[in-house]
Amino acid sequence: MGSIAEFFETGEQTSQKGHFRNLVLIARYDGIILDKENNLLNKIAQRLSITEEQVKEILENSDSYPAIPPYSREDRYERFIQLIQMAMIDGVMSHEELIFVKHIGMSLGFSDETIESKTKVIIDKINSGLSKDEILEAIL
Fold first, then answer.
1. C-alpha torsion angle, residues 38, 42, 43, 47 (rounded to 10)
2. How many domains is the chain built from?
3. Is residue 5 part of a domain?
4. Is 96 among the domain residues?
5. Around 137, how many Cα atoms within 13 Å sit in the side-chain half-sphere?
6. Region label for 81, one of left (φ > 0), alpha (ψ between -120 and 50) or beta (otherwise)
7. Interior CA angle at 49 toward 44 and 50, to 5°?
8. What is the reported pTM?
9. What is the domain range of residue 47?
10. What does the buried/exposed string (b/e) look like for 34-56 if buried means 16 or more CB atoms within 10 Å of the residue's CB?
11. pLDDT at residue 97 above 80?
12. Are 1 and 64 in contact (CB under 8 A)?
């Protein structure tokens, strides 16, 4: 980080980069980023208006990006769903990935009880083939 544009980033842009960083960390949790994970990262980067250059920077320097939770409840749940989708994209969520997802859930402002109950529902909905928007509608 260090460009003038980055200096004048909004809190929302910084928060989006922090969320993307969390997704990268989950994708990288087993040591490599699979093609499926990379494709999901690219789709989410586009939705978050993160440029290819910024994606590359986050991939190379993920420790430089703080995780800042969004203000709205809906946005926090959307991010939580995306984290679980990323952890499950290879078909399996390891115990370690689950612990990490729950840790990020706490940083999003969710209680232990909410994380436990919503994680189970989100996993079931993902396994049922529902989209992120359908899952979001079901848990709100």
1. 150
2. 1
3. no
4. yes
5. 5
6. alpha
7. 75
8. 0.86
9. 10-139
10. eeebeebbeebbeebebeeebbe
11. yes
12. yes
Among residues 21, 131, 29, 120, the alpha carbon closest in space to that of 78 is found at: 131
Residue 59 amino acid letter: L
Give the type of residue at 48.
L
Q: Is residue 77 part of a domain?
A: yes
User: Six-digit token pair at 132?
Assistant: 């992120």
Calpha distance 34→137 (Å, rounded)? 29
Q: Is 48 helix (H, G, I), strand (E, B) or coil?
A: coil
**Distance between the two ends of the chain, CA-based, in angstroms?**
36
Structure tokens at 42: 């690219």
The neighbour count for residue 65, using CB atoms within 10 Å, is 21
Question: Lowest mean pLDDT: which of 1-10, 31-40, 70-79?
Answer: 1-10
Q: Does residue 18 lie within any of the structural domains? A: yes
Q: How many CB atoms lie within 10 A of CB 25?
A: 17
